[in-house]
Design goal:
The structure is a single chain. It is built from 5 helices and 2 strands, in the order H-E-H-E-H-H-H. The chain is mainly alpha-helical. It has a domain of about 70 residues. It has a two-stranded antiparallel ribbon. Helix 3 crosses helix 5. The two termini are about 30 Å apart. About 10% of the residues are buried.
Length: about 100
């Protein structure tokens, strides 16, 4: 893996600052069975409670926020027929009305 592609904790914190208010706060659940199997304390994030039913809006919103003005004027294309496509449509629709990005 390319070292430049590794996401740091600071990257996650910046994304939270950028998009955190735009998404539902979803709960986490502990799993005694998984924790026992892997030998570590395991918590699962219930992203199914996002409006699109997955974690995909997090990445889409973060990417939209990082676009330059020129990139924004050209628009975005998502190549997916699943959760990512739903996230792109949801984020584009909600972002178009507020222009937060």
């Amino acid at each position: 893996m390319d070292a430049a592609a590794v996401i740091s904790l600071d990257d996650v914190r910046r994304a939270r600052e950028t998009i955190g208010a735009r998404l539902h706060r979803t709960p986490t659940f502990s799993s005694a069975t998984l924790s026992r199997l892997v030998g570590a304390d395991v918590h699962l994030k219930a992203e199914l409670f996002q409006r699109t039913g997955s974690f995909k809006p997090r990445g889409v919103l973060n990417k939209l926020a990082s676009l330059s003005p020129g990139e924004k004027s050209r628009g975005v294309v998502g190549i997916s027929a699943g959760n990512h496509a739903q996230a792109v449509a949801y984020c584009a629709r909600s972002s178009a009305s507020t222009r937060w990005w």
